[in-house]
Amino acid sequence: MITVKALMQPHRIVMMLLFAALVIWCAVSLRWDWIPKYAPLALQGLWTTIWLLVVTTVLGFLMAVPLGLAQAVGPWYLATPARVFCTIIRGTPLLLQIWLLYYGLGSLFPQFPWIRSSELWPYLRQAWPYAVLALTLSFAGYEGEVMRGAFSGVAKGQLEAAKSFGMPRFTMFRRIWLPQAVRNVLPTLGGETILQLKATPLVATITVVEIYAVSSRVRADTFVVYEPLLLLALVYMAIAGLIALAFRRFEEV
Fold first, then answer.
1. What is the DSSP string of 50-80?
2. Which phi and psi angles does 31 have, rounded to 5°?
3. How many CB atoms lie within 10 A of CB 77?
4. Where are the alpha helices (DSSP H) in 169-225?
5. Distance of alpha carbon 154 from its chain centroid, rounded?
6. How far is CA 53 from CA 38, 60, 78, 86, in A?
7. Fewest CB atoms within 10 Å of the CB: 41, 148, 166, 238?
8. Around 239, how many Cα atoms within 13 Å sit in the side-chain half-sphere?
9. Are 192 and 206 in contact (CB under 8 A)?
10. Quick one: DSSP state of residue 228?
């Protein structure tokens, strides 16, 4: 925790003064008259970014747990597909995965009349399900490999002691193995969550209107370039800071 004495060190004071001067210069010299007009759209885009981040990280982590477990202790017929999936996801660009799902599945589904007549068709016609699927699979692929190492790193003596006491395998997994594995990967999980946040702008390429797409629209409509990008950078930095702070609190528990 940074104390007042630490903040009053000369180099920190200089940095704070420079930052304050930069903020004042940006507020006075740059053009911000477009904000009231685009504020509602920006709030909608911010909400889209946040729920995309939350939903895809939660679903991706739920997929990563069995992927990591299968690679760590699973039989070959489970470990091999899990390893192949993680290798493909980590070896191909996320933008390519998004396009393959949106332009691939998105153009394949209309060819089946039973899909077009189903209740899912109104959702499959939109872009956001493919964005959620692509981001979820991407997060699961990276975290699946991380969880593999986390499961392998749990001390075998604890698991053997639990077996000797007759603890059921699922109970041992739920009370001993999984909690320790998750605790070991919390720093990495926090970093991957921030990377997931910075990956969300890619869904703008398939017409999902999140906060980056809003800034692009502002630039296209008003020809104002730097101001939307600066504000966008501050938004991402604020969200990333909150994520880092939250995971730091989890690590201290």
1. HHHHHHHHHHHHHHHHHHHHHHHH--HHHHH
2. -100, 120
3. 8
4. 169-172, 178-199, 211-222
5. 25
6. 22, 10, 28, 20
7. 166
8. 20
9. no
10. H
- Residues 91-106: b if buried by 16+ CB within 10 A, e if exposed: eeebeebbbebbeeeb
Phi-psi region of 166 (alpha: psi -120 to 50; beta: other; left: phi over 0): left
Provide Rg for the chain, Cα atoms.
Answer: 23
User: Residues 33, 35, 37, CA angle at the centre, nearest 5°?
Assistant: 95
Residue closest to 186 by CA, chosen among 101, 243, 118: 243
Structure tokens at 169: 């395998």
Distance between CA atoms of 253 and 194, rounded to whole angstroms?
Answer: 21
The pLDDT tens digits along the chain (253 residues) read 555 555 566 766 777 778 788 778 877 888 888 989 999 999 999 999 999 999 999 999 999 999 999 999 889 999 999 999 999 999 999 999 999 999 988 888 888 888 888 888 888 889 999 999 999 999 999 999 999 998 888 777 777 777 777 778 788 888 888 888 888 899 899 999 999 999 999 999 998 999 999 999 998 999 888 889 988 998 999 999 999 999 988 888 7
Question: CA–CA separation, 100 vs 35, rounded Å?
Answer: 35
What is the spatial distance between Cα 175 and Cα 155, in angstroms, rounded to a whole number? 14
